[in-house]
């Protein structure tokens, strides 16, 4: 199913097959592919080989590139990040190799100081990539692709001296969400920054069909019922000893919020109590704007991160009527004993390339607002009541089936008598058949004798006639 190829460097276009899925060629001892959309969405592939593999002890980190391909094409391409050699308790020598995909190239460059100024998301990301490309080798260069993530108002953006990957994560992903999708076209790498990724499928993940096991987790660690919005650093007196003042005051909202530096959601406080946190808007200096942005944050706050973990049978490999489960696509998940039916996005897909029909998925619906929480909690209770009702109906059906089974058992107990009677009748018929056969044989013998006698009579009659003529 999956072929693994190792390339000496970016100029090596042929490569060497590390694992051949057919019955011939090199083989790996294990191979775990983990495709991800979480954070920067850096996917990994870890495999192991033994001393019989011709590439044992020949791999080099950073320099070597590795691809994983299936029947439809390439599913992973990256570089070797880590190599470890071990001897297990049976005395076997194993080499483990960890690979990271090409988005990890963004960790190979740093950003210069960029003064804050009004820029769109696209303009800011393009500047970051241009600085990255100016520092790295041609095969590590990443060009800006499609950008659908936007903001409704003008925002000041800037950066410090951090790694390019970290700046993108901190300044864009953590604030605005979205997905970073890396694609290759005509030998060049393009980075898309998208609000949405994937499509909604009708293929269900369902008990008794393809869902082997599942768990549902709710994380409320980021819940806040009261927030303190803080903005841009305030200008300090030039006479202040900056060496003894490591912390600088920031813009707050007391003067435009009745002396209070916080905003709260009364419904959340009533439900969960006071849970206060600070929310930073480092580029906002106007207090009214800061209050408005803080209120927007509070109103749109996501309370809970919902994620499912599931072990699934990849029916698409066994039956062409089913589709292959793809990273980023959304699928209906139905397990009424855990939760009501939800359509959720696959954000991680883990594949054992030696057993590709069994996969592990992390699927999530993202973070829920308080109103969504209330509606879904109500829906869950209704679903549970339906399940209980179905269980009650099933129990009644089972009782009826038990009565029918008892009647069937009583009827079955009569079968030996019927069988004995039938055997006796069959024996009688057989005996009668034998008698009839014997009678038929006797009749045939009598017919033969009669025929012989008739022949003799005719001969005597002919003889008498001849004597009378004389």
Gyration radius (Cα, Å) is: 41 Å
Give the percentage of residues in beta strands. Answer: 25-35%
What is the C-level CATH assignment of the largest domain? Mainly Beta
The N- to C-terminal Cα distance equals 110 Å
One letter per element, helices H and strands E, the order comes to EEEEEEEEHEEHEEEEEEHEHEEEEHH
Low-confidence stretches: none
CATH architecture field of the largest domain: Roll
CATH topology of the largest domain: Phage tail proteins - horseshoe like beta roll fold
CATH superfamily of the largest domain: Baseplate protein-like domain - beta roll fold
Q: What is the count of distinct domains?
A: 4
Protein structure class: alpha+beta
Percent of residues in helices comes to 25-40%
Number of distinct helices: 6
Main sheet makeup: 13 strands, mixed
Which word captures the global form? elongated
Arithmetic mean pLDDT: 83
Domain Tail spike: 146-374
Pfam families: Prophage_tail
Keywords: Coiled coil
Organism: Candidatus Enterococcus palustris
Task: Please specify the SSE layout and strand pairing.
Layout: E1 3-7, E2 16-19, E3 30-36, E4 44-50, E5 65-70, E6 73-87, E7 93-101, E8 114-118, H1 121-135, E9 142-147, E10 156-159, H2 164-176, E11 179-185, E12 188-194, E13 205-206, E14 211-219, E15 226-230, E16 263-264, H3 266-272, E17 276-280, H4 287-299, E18 304-313, E19 330-335, E20 339-352, E21 358-368, H5 370-413, H6 415-469
Parallel strand pairs: 9-12, 13-19, 15-17
Antiparallel strand pairs: 1-2, 1-5, 3-4, 3-20, 4-7, 5-6, 6-7, 8-10, 11-12, 14-18, 15-16, 18-21, 19-20, 20-21
Helix pairs in contact: 1-2
């Amino acid at each position: 199913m999956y072929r693994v190829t190792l390339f000496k460097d970016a100029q090596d276009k042929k490569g060497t097959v590390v694992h051949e899925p057919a019955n011939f060629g090199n083989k790996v001892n294990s191979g775990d592919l983990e495709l991800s959309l979480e954070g920067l969405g850096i996917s990994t592939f870890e495999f192991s080989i033994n001393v019989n593999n011709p590439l044992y002890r020949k791999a080099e980190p950073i320099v070597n590139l590795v691809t994983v391909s299936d029947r439809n094409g390439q599913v992973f391409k990256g570089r070797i990040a880590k190599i470890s050699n071990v001897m297990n308790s049976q005395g076997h020598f194993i080499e483990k190799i960890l690979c990271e995909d090409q988005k990890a190239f963004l960790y190979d460059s740093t950003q210069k100081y960029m003064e804050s100024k009004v820029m769109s998301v696209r303009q800011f990301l393009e500047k970051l990539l241009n600085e990255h490309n100016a520092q790295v080798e041609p095969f590590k260069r990443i060009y800006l692709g499609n950008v659908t993530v936007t903001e409704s108002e003008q925002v000041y953006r800037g950066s410090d001296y951090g790694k390019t990957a970290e700046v993108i994560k901190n300044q864009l992903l953590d604030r605005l969400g979205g997905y970073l999708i890396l694609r290759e076209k005509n030998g060049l790498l393009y980075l898309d920054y998208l609000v949405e990724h994937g499509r909604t499928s009708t293929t269900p993940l369902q008990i008794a069909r393809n869902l082997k096991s599942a768990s549902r987790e709710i994380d409320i660690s980021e819940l806040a019922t009261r927030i303190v919005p803080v903005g841009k650093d305030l200008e300090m007196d030039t006479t202040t000893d900056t060496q003894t003042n490591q912390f600088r005051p920031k813009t707050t909202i007391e003067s435009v919020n009745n002396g209070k530096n916080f905003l709260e959601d009364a419904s959340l406080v009533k439900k969960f109590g006071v849970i206060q946190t600070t929310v930073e808007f480092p580029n906002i200096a106007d207090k009214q704007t800061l209050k408005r942005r803080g209120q927007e944050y509070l109103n749109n706050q996501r309370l809970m991160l919902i994620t499912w973990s599931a072990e699934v049978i990849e029916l698409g490999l066994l039956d062409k009527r089913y589709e292959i489960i793809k990273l980023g696509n959304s699928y209906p998940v139905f397990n009424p004993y855990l939760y009501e039916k939800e359509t959720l996005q696959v954000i991680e897909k883990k594949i054992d390339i030696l057993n590709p029909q069994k996969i592990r998925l992390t699927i999530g619906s993202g973070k829920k607002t308080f109103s969504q929480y209330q509606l879904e909690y109500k829906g869950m209770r209704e679903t549970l009541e339906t399940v209980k009702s179905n269980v009650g109906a099933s129990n009644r059906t089972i009782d009826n089936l038990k009565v029918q089974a008892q009647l069937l058992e009583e009827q079955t107990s009569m079968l030996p008598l019927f069988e004995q009677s039938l055997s006796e009748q069959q024996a009688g018929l057989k005996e009668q058949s034998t008698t009839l056969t014997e009678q038929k044989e006797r009749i045939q013998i009598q017919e033969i004798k009669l025929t012989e006698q008739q022949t003799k009579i005719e001969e005597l009659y002919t003889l008498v006639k001849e004597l009378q003529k004389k």
